[in-house]
Design brief:
- This protein is of the alpha/beta class.
- The chain has a domain at 33-136.
- The protein has helices at residues 5-28, 134-148; strands spanning 37-43, 54-57, 60-70, 77-83, 94-99, 106-111, 124-125, 127-129.
- It is extended and about 70 Å long.
């Protein structure tokens, strides 16, 4: 097989461009974990949450999810977070699992509280809300619709119009 030097050079150029693109994408994205102080939060469910995921305040990344484990006493999921040292959270802050969109990645969104007392490093966010499950919401809508059909609805006017009545108002037998 005869190799053309132009094809080899073009292949090398493609590989260099791909490497530059990957380097640019990695350096401009915030895929690296935020280093800082650690906090924990307990949730009833962490469906779809991943280690290394974002922790955001007002949509801005301020931390990372370090790990997830199950508390054997309460059977709640314990999530360990790494928070930016410049972000101090009040003790009444709320951590909620949300998603970037209908099919987007899940992350922890923190709604800062108004208390003067701050959560110390190594402390815990006590107010949490688990993720809303799309499957459960759809199931509830379908269940509610099936429960609502056929109950409490009166027949419309003329529903029994084809039935003949006798002189005393009782339905007469159909011939």
């Amino acid at each position: 097989m005869n190799r053309n030097p132009v094809e080899t050079l073009m292949g090398a150029v493609v590989l260099v461009v791909a490497a530059v693109f990957l380097f640019f994408a990695y350096t401009t994205s915030q895929v690296q974990a935020v280093s800082g102080y650690q906090l924990t939060a307990k949730f009833s469910s962490v469906d779809g949450l991943k280690d290394g995921g974002d922790v955001r305040v007002s949509g801005i990344k301020v931390g990372s999810i370090l790990s997830q484990r199950l508390d054997p006493q309460s059977f709640q999921a314990v999530v360990t977070l790494s928070m930016d040292p410049s972000i101090k959270l009040a003790t009444d802050s709320v951590a909620e699992i949300t998603s970037s969109g209908l099919l987007g990645d899940k992350y922890i969104s923190i709604e800062p509280g108004n208390e003067d007392d701050l959560i110390p490093p190594g402390g815990a966010i006590t107010h949490t809300q688990a993720a809303m499950s799309l499957e459960n919401l759809i199931g509830q809508v379908i269940y509610n619709q099936s429960q609502g059909s056929g109950q409490g609805k009166s027949p419309g006017p003329g529903a029994n119009a084809d039935q003949k009545k006798s002189d005393d108002g009782a339905p007469a037998a159909n011939p």
